[in-house]
């Protein structure tokens, strides 16, 4: 059996063959990523020096994690990764193009989204496939991917931050490395067989409306674009509404040698010698799309040199933008190794925002890979010259003071953990992201969409996560965006009904109304199940309550007391859907009709009135008012007993892996904050053991190391916070809840900030997980939470950990989180 060490050596030798070239000085290659270093405490002897060494991009690539292993940079535009196939050219083996368990690929696509749950997910644009053999039929006609795809072995695959390499069973190999908006690839071929490179321009994961390719043999260039979109466009729950186009991706590829042959195809017609082709695939799947589409190919004479180098730039604005991005970011003679080294250094800088000490190798790998996944988004969509595609379909330029336009906002997921980590570690990016979302809203008639992909409003999920997100950024000290303008716009969305709010188009999963039937909501104090034009009335009420509470806190920080009082009252609307007699023995969140009646029959295990979760899960989704929820349940003792039943089976065994609608589900967002609720219920030792149980059994290393869809870094951010021993208390706030850290020491050094947060837990281990005492800046802290100033301003946090529960620490009713 080949060991990991020997496999790396063999891949390294092949890389030396396919990644050769003149080494160049490219220290400025990724200059936009360099930020002023933060102040930090003195390093420890066992502190991780280079976090990038502990990243395994294959974690989460099986078991529904929907991550991808290809080359990318933090917040980058290009993400060059394999598109796998299970025998259907109109589908893929996993939501975002790659499945570890499916070792056959039909190309290496230029764009990806991390961990989205729709299948196929999004992007996967312009798969480029090294093919060994003659192109004697249309690749689009190969609907089962039998000829123009190839298998591979994981022994011939190596994924690392900024670089991806694989050897195919055909004898071809690909070695890919990227900057933010461009990339370099080495494709190697057997010397004794035809060498061809296929550009499947129309074959995005979700299909395409149209695509274009142009081959310029004289200049050794291939250029083109794909017109596509359709995120979640095939889901049964409203998917038909999203079978629409909303962006165009341009690409420009140049080669280090002449073409020996060229050709194109349109549908089933192959045109050898042709240099242009057009045609899309549509947005359906299976027989409704099979055999449609266009692309082109170029061939090479590899008898003397079997290594082909390609340099490529992309843009969402124009072909000229793609070429300018390439010129701006990658030197003309830069090799794959050069670009990969710069990319690796860029990742190392970002990951060094948290420097841990101690811990086992697997724990370090799980931690830094989670941080890697959490920092993949938002994604850059502006060109090097500052232009980007607007939601109105026209190009725009960055606002004054804005350094980048970002997109890919999985709001319903990210507002619970990922945006807090972004604000803590990368406040400048967070501010640019906030401004980006505001820019999109202005292009979109003032409407803030809850799931933005590139420049498209997809309407996916429920609630108003933009409000919660921007309020969180502001609470955590992010200021580099138009906070007043953004607040005014979000307040208007929360108070002025919009015509889309009365539409059922796209419902239930992609309802167009971002505050559905707002007039009824404001009149009744809840979203009526029979009149809300939403996914589920109970879920919508809870989501809007969270959003309004967050807006209220933001308003108070802005000095708008009257507005804060108004919105704060609306933050309590969750009470209008809590039925204290839902089952006769216990109260639950339950959907209501317009006339005030409860929706029946009621079953705590049912998702009726909810979105991707049961009543049993959603009943805990009141992070802004845990004391109020406890009171509604009969008091903190009663609430804690119920929470025990949420995490355990009746026999006392743990139930934290999911699959039981009556209990905790670590694979989806509505309940992921629940382990920390014990802090507010006066039993923080149960938070400590519950979080550690989830960390130890649900997360890990290997392809199945994530519990479910990573959802643009949300599940990974959960793990990062859990490992540090802190967790966001509620959206719109900077307070943090405490639990026992995994590592003896961690230094958090936010990018561009002259402050650091040091977390010490010298006794941290698998057995010492219970908190006995805490000190903040050297002073005893008798509460299980931190004031928001700690995350904003920095300081030291020290834990005294024990191997058994301390049932007295942080239990004083007067000091519980509120």
Automatic annotation (TrEMBL):
It comes from the Bacteria. Signal peptide: none annotated. Residues 54-315 form the Glycosyl hydrolase family 92 N-terminal domain. InterPro entries: 6-hairpin_glycosidase_sf (IPR008928), GH-type_carb-bd (IPR014718), GH92_a_mannosidase_put (IPR005887), GH92_N (IPR041371), Glyco_hydro_92 (IPR012939), PNGase (IPR050883), TAT_signal (IPR006311). GO terms for cellular component: cytosol. One of its GO terms (biological process) is glycoprotein catabolic process. Residues 321-802 form the Glycosyl hydrolase family domain. GO terms for molecular function: carbohydrate binding; peptide-N4-(N-acetyl-beta-glucosaminyl)asparagine amidase activity. This is Alpha-1,2-mannosidase, putative.
């Amino acid at each position: 059996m080949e060991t990991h060490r020997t496999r790396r050596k063999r891949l390294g030798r092949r890389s030396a063959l396919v990644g050769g070239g003149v080494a160049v000085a490219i220290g400025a290659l990724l200059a936009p990523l360099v930020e002023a270093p933060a102040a930090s405490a003195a390093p420890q002897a066992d502190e991780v020096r280079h976090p990038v060494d502990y990243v395994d991009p294959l974690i989460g690539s099986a078991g529904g994690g929907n991550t991808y292993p290809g080359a990318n940079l933090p917040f980058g535009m290009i993400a060059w990764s394999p598109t796998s196939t299970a025998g259907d050219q109109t589908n893929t083996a996993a939501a975002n193009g790659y499945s570890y368990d499916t070792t056959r690929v039909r190309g290496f696509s230029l764009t990806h989204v991390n961990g989205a749950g729709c299948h196929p997910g999004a992007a996967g644009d312009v798969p480029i496939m090294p093919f060994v053999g003659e192109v004697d039929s249309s690749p689009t006609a190969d609907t089962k991917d039998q000829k123009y795809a190839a298998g591979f072995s994981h022994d011939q695959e190596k994924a690392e931050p900024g670089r991806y390499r694989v050897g195919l069973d055909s004898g071809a190999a690909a070695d890919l490395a990227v900057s933010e908006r461009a990339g370099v690839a080495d494709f190697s071929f057997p010397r004794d067989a035809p060498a061809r490179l296929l550009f499947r321009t129309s074959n995005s994961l979700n299909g395409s409306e149209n695509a274009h390719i142009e081959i310029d043999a004289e200049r050794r260039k291939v250029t083109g674009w794909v017109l596509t979109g359709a995120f979640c466009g095939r889901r049964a729950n409203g998917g038909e509404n999203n079978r629409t186009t909303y962006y165009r991706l341009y690409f420009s590829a140049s080669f280090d040698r002449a073409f020996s042959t060229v050709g194109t195809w349109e549908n089933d017609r192959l045109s050898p010698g042709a240099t242009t082709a057009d045609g899309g695939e549509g947005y359906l799947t299976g027989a409704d799309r099979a055999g449609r589409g266009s692309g082109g190919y170029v061939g090479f004479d590899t008898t003397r040199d079997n290594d082909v180098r390609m340099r490529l730039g992309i843009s969402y604005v124009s072909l000229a933008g793609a070429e300018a991005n390439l010129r701006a970011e990658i030197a003309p003679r830069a090799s794959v190794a050069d670009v990969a080294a710069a990319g690796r250094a860029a990742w190392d800088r970002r990951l060094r925002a948290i420097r841990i000490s101690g811990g086992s190798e697997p724990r370090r790998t799980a931690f830094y890979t989670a941080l890697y996944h959490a920092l993949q988004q938002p994604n850059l969509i502006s060109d090097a010259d500052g232009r980007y595609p607007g939601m109105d379909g026209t190009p725009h330029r960055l606002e004054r003071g804005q350094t980048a336009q970002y997109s890919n906002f999985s709001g319903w997921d990210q507002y619970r953990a990922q945006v807090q980590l972004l604000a803590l570690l990368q406040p400048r990016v967070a501010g640019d992201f906030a401004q980006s979302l505001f820019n999109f809203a202005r292009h979109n008639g003032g409407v803030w969409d809850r799931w933005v992909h590139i420049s498209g409003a997809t309407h996916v999920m429920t609630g108003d996560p933009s409000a919660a997100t921007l309020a969180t950024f502001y609470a955590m000290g992010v200021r580099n965006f138009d906070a007043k303008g953004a607040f005014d716009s979000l307040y208007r969305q929360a108070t002025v009904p919009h015509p889309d709010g009365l539409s059922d188009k796209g419902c239930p999963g992609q309802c167009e109304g971002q505050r559905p039937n707002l007039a009824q909501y404001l009149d009744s104090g809840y979203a009526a199940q029979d009149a809300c034009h939403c996914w589920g009335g109970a879920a919508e009420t809870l989501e809007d309550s969270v959003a309004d509470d967050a807006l209220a806190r933001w308003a108070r920080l802005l000095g708008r007391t009257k507005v804060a009082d108004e919105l704060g009252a609306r933050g309590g609307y969750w009470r209008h859907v809590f039925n204290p007699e839902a089952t006769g023995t216990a109260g639950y969140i339950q959907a209501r009709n317009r006339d005030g009646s409860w929706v029946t029959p009621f079953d705590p295990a049912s998702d009726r009135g909810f979105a991707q979760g049961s009543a049993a899960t959603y009943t805990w989704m009141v992070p802004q008012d845990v004391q109020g929820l406890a009171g509604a349940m009969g008091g903190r003792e009663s609430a804690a007993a119920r929470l025990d039943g949420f995490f355990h089976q009746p026999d006392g065994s743990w139930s934290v892996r999911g699959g039981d609608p009556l209990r905790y589900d670590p694979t989806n967002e509505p309940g992921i904050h629940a382990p920390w609720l014990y802090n507010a219920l006066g039993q923080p030792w149960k938070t400590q053991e519950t979080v550690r149980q989830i960390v130890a059994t649900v997360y890990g290393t290997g392809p199945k190391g994530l519990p479910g869809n990573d959802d643009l870094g949300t599940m990974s951010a959960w793990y990062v916070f859990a490992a540090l021993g802190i967790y966001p208390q509620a959206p719109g706030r900077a307070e943090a809840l405490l639990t026992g850290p995994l590592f003896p020491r961690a230094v958090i050094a936010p990018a561009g900030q002259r402050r650091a947060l040091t977390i010490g837990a010298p006794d941290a281990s698998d057995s010492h997980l219970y908190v006995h005492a805490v000190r903040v800046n050297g002073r005893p802290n008798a509460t299980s939470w931190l004031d928001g100033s700690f995350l904003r301003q920095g300081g030291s946090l020290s834990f005294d950990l024990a191997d058994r529960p301390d049932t007295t620490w942080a239990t004083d009713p007067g000091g519980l989180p509120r």
